[in-house]
Amino acid sequence: MTGTSATFKAAMIQMRSGLSPAANLDDAVRMIGEAKAAGADYAQTPEMTNLLAANREQLFAAIVEEEHDTSLAAYRELARKLGIFIHIGSLAIKVSPDKAANRSFLITPQGDIAARYDKIHMFDVDLGNGESYRESRNYRPGEQAVISSMPWGVLGLTVCYDLRFPALYRALAEAGATLLAIPSAFTKPTGEAHWHVLMRARAIENGSFVLASAQAGKHESGRETYGHSIIVDPWGRVLAEGGTEPGVIMAEIDPAQVTKARSKVPSLQHGRRFEIVEPIAEATHLHLVRE
Questions:
Q1: By the 8 A CB rule, do 52 and 215 touch?
Q2: pTM
Q3: Catalytic residue positions, numbered
Q4: Domain residues for 190?
């Protein structure tokens, strides 16, 4: 792990990705440039930065293998040009004729790929309001949790629905993560109900910063996402939050706050592993007595 004394500026790039990877790239490049001009050292885009497609045909007509993805190459060149970390929340990347990966990329200021993470938890849900999603039909889930050292701490990489699985974040924190990235494309109903409380909970229970860029608004595909990109400090305070329109939100991140929060509530040190047992009830014998 590298030194963590200096503060840095983190920027969340809130998007409304459509069906054209080229148009989405233009939007992201423009907003990342705005973030850099405002002093950003790290810029994060949301889940599905390259496109938000409603059906399988649209998805597979637009995506390619990682080595052929022109948007990824453009982001690497942009990171070199601007001299900042660019964290692509995720791109849909073709990994076989019938499956894609929901893959996150952390790119260094030199344009190198420091880390890749394939979303582990697939969003297979029926929301009860007519919205139904089966991410596993098109995407292959990842199998490995990923951390990556940066100049200000250790970043734990996750994506969207991963948010609902606290064991993943505890494992990342126990492995050294002090910054938890949760780029997302939350639905409007689930976002209204759970977004803020879950983001703050992941920060509080792990004594870590949460950095979560989001998709926002009514998309070309017809899907509506919640927005509200958010940055939360290790004590659960919201440092910055977006609305429902595309844009950039920023906050100054002080890594020393991680040590302070974890010293106040050292739950990472107090966690215990335990066995769960189901007791077998002792048999009870009833005797009927007649007088």
A1: yes
A2: 0.92
A3: 47, 119, 160
A4: 8-270
